[in-house]
Amino acid sequence: MTATARQIEVPPSGQDLLQTDSLAAFCKAAGDPLRLEILRVLQHNAYGVLELSQLLDVKQSGMSHHLKVLASAGLVATRREGNTIFYRRAPQPIEPLLQELHRNLFATVDLIKLSAELQQRIHATNQERTKASRDFFEKNADRFHANQDLIASFTQYGEIITEFLDTSSVTKETVLEVGPGEGDFLPSLAQRFKRVIALDTSDEMLCRSRSITRDHQLDNVHFVHGDTAIAVEQQLTADCITLNMVLHHTPDPAQIFDDLAQLLKPGGVLLVTELCHHDQSWARESCGDLWLGFEPEDLSSWAATAGLEEGESLYLAQRNGFQIQLRQFFKH
């Protein structure tokens, strides 16, 4: 037999072995009903081990094991928020071999509707988060500005977000401000729009916003007590929505984007001012933060899932080590 006729066995390369190992880990992780259930729960939000254990009625040690398997397969990612580690769905893997499997797995599990009981548990967990944030603001209303100034006051970004607003071609009919706080932005909005809606879950904050409108004799500002889900139920619509330093106080940021996309009229713009992710955990106790900021790609992903198109972005570094992201999203 000639050398050309002989079959020569070529040993697999290191890259081939790595891809095979990754594929095996992926199949192992995806081959368990409970782990698929975890991925379904993590569709839009991040949860800690204890929260997931309670949601799915699994012992914490067992939940930790399943999360470790999912993490090893690149299906969940972790993020530390103070003393708690939160789990969320991982972004797409680098390996081209797994990218389509990754997308298809998430798309398939999302077709399976969560049971009514599990949806109720998720809702209750998010309500607990909302209550903790609301209670903080009700108890610390007098310290609102002092707490705000610890991180970033409105004066540090208000002028720039106003410039974003002025340079956009949005119709100046109705604007919705979610979480107006003490109402610092309301006078500027009232000058630029025929109708302003101020939406807040805190009665105390709404009272302080009303005081601002009285002081400035603004007669085109309307107040709604509730969250974005209430606004959707009331079928409110707006040409522009502003969300300034609010998202890190909300229990389910992805759901907020979904709600706001429903409230936004076609051609409308969503303006978001938010903290970039940081590790200063004292902000939880001092400022009532539920999340320690967000990565820019988090906001981009939630907006895209909600059907919004990304516009301009601007990032402002603060002297105290925080960084602010000013983001613009459109609905076509």
Helix-strand layout with pairing:
Blueprint: H1 14-30, H2 33-41, E1 47-48, H3 49-56, H4 60-72, E2 76-81, E3 84-89, H5 96-109, H6 116-139, H7 144-151, H8 158-167, E4 174-178, H9 186-192, E5 195-200, H10 203-215, E6 221-225, H11 228-233, E7 238-244, H12 253-263, E8 264-275, H13 282-287, H14 296-305, E9 309-317, E10 323-330
Parallel strand pairs: 4-5, 4-7, 5-6, 7-8
Antiparallel strand pairs: 1-3, 2-3, 8-10, 9-10
Task: List its traits.
Rossmann fold, about 325 residues, alpha/beta, three-stranded antiparallel sheet, seven-stranded mixed sheet, Arc Repressor Mutant, subunit A, single chain, 14 helices, 2 domains
Describe the structure.
- The protein is α/β, with parallel strands linked by helices and 332 residues long.
- It folds into two domains: 14-114, Winged helix-like DNA-binding domain superfamily/Winged helix DNA-binding domain (Arc Repressor Mutant, subunit A); 141-330, Rossmann fold, CATH 3.40.50.
- Helices cover 47% and strands 20% of the residues.
- It has helices at 14-30, 33-41, 49-56, 60-72, 96-109, 116-139, 144-151, 158-167, 186-192, 203-215, 228-233, 253-263, 282-287, 296-305; strands at residues 47-48, 76-81, 84-89, 174-178, 195-200, 221-225, 238-244, 264-275, 309-317, 323-330.
- The strands form two sheets. A seven-stranded mixed beta sheet has the order 6-5-4-7-8-10-9, sandwiched between helices. A three-stranded antiparallel beta sheet has the order 1-3-2.
- Helix 1 (14-30) packs antiparallel against helix 4 (60-72).
- The protein is globular, with a radius of gyration of 23 Å.
- The relative contact order is 0.10.
